[in-house]
Amino acid sequence: MRKVSIFGATGSIGQSTIDLIARDPDAYQVVALSGGRNVAQLAADARRLNAQVAVTAFDDCYDDLKAALAGSGIEAAAGAGAMDGAAKRPADWVMSAIVGAAGLKPGLLALEQGATLALANKESLVCAGELVRRTAAQNGGTLLPVDSEHSAVFQALIGEDRAAVERVIITASGGAFRDWSLDQMAAATPEQAATHPNWAMGQRITIDSASMFNKALEVIETHELFGFREDQIEVVVHPESLVHALIGFSDGGIMAHLGPADMRHAIGFALHWPERDHVPVERLDLTQIGALTFRAPDETRYPALRLAREVMQAGGLMGAVFNAAKETALDGFLGHRIGFLQMAEVVEEVLARLSSDPCLTNDTMTLESVLETDQMARQTAETVINDLQT
Ligand code: NDP
Ligand code: MG
Q1: 257 by DSSP, 3-state: which?
Q2: How far is CA 205 from the centre of its chain?
Q3: Whose CA is nearest to atom 9 of ligand 1?
Q4: Which residues surround ligand 2, an ion (CB under 5 A)?
Q5: Which of 44, 246, 347, 369 is disulfide-compatible with 325, CB 3.0–4.6 A?
């Protein structure tokens, strides 16, 4: 039996992962499940999968979790130390599906145990790509992409000569506002931004899709995971969300990866890798689909893409600055403190204020330096948001 743990089990990716694992209970022994505030879901899944331990990231959720697990024999735990402890428990395969920079440490701890880390938490790579790769390499851990575009790139590269790759194209749906005017986008509410035309995802990534910050993070993720240069990575808007990525080779050929807009494909691929096995997703009928369309992203509407390229060129800890500023700006938008388009303004201003700090581009990357940078960028972003409001 394979030992598996799921961090972010109560979220959209976590629930899709549980759906796959619960279909084959004899194949998996569930070690740890982690969640945040949705304690009822966490406890229900821990009971269903007979997990060894269920952990909530928040101390104040402990009593509810303990009560919900009473009589089950499943350990209940809460808080940062308990999250670390759960990530250190030996497991063969670990899903990293916490949202935000909070997902970095559990992923690193799992890699330190030599686990295979199925990485949905793209923020880990944006904040600390070099550290994540180094931790995997030094401890015999394996990193597998779960983001649909990156799973697609990974799959399209199997058996190919990396040196023959000219370019990588990742697709973007365009999110909720792909056909909105800039004036409409300026007045958009969090509720409007949190609806996605094709994918059912958590609230934060859905809003990041509408602003293209999600795609901006994914451009950096492509660079960090596969080592392609910034100028080799392209983004095209593809409203149907059926082609997830394409690899262009030196002979002019292009390998495209297609699949339904269902994250269980990419999760299932990572779960079964290096083999392929049945995954219960819809089979595409190309004759029903009829047409696939593509267009260039408009960088005046989506400054996030330009900012991501500047961050990659700067390197070092600027990815951690970018991600933390983006997370804080998103909180500002969700709290109705800034408008939708002001999220990019905040991030650009934070990057400008911190880019002159030589420590951010030269220092060796450690978990401590990443977390310190993350905090500094969040504080700077708060200041910028306050300045915008007054
Ligand atoms: P959700 O918001 O649906 O779920 C987030 C999970 O993280 C929940 O389990 C939540 O707990 C937990 N969580 C929230 N805050 C914290 C915290 N501070 N510490 C520990 N745990 C926390 O997100 P998604 O599933 O949509 O996304 C998860 C990750 O996967 C993100 O990095 C996202 O970018 C990536 N991803 C998602 C895709 C998707 O289709 N959803 C596609 C590709 C990548 P609770 O809800 O109990 O509070
Ligand atoms: Mg994606």
Answers
A1: strand
A2: 8
A3: 8
A4: 147-149
A5: 347
